[in-house]
Amino acid sequence: MITGGIEVGETTQEAVVRELKEETGITKAKLYVIPMVNSYYLSAVDKVCLSPVFLCEAKNKDVKISDEHSEYKWVSFEEAKELIHWHNQVESMCVIEEFLNNEKKFKKLVELEK
Question: What is the predicted pLDDT for the residue at 65?
Fold first, then answer.
């Protein structure tokens, strides 16, 4: 699960590509728009934030994590759902799994243009 913010002057698509590269080192991937938006309250700045959800399909499994993280591991969806702390991120995983397991639905996803 990769998360991050949009920098000043940056589009959402640019932020997604940048965060993917910064947090994993992955630069070649297909990115799909998942039809949902997570919301959460950020108490440090007293704001409600909206976060679109994307799916990344990368062939390269050679992840190089950033200094923001101490480790990573590849796990099944079931394991990931147990490891992820935030309920709305688990819901995102369930929606993503639904699209991945249904070819007809998957074909309806919009691929981000980079």
Answer: 86
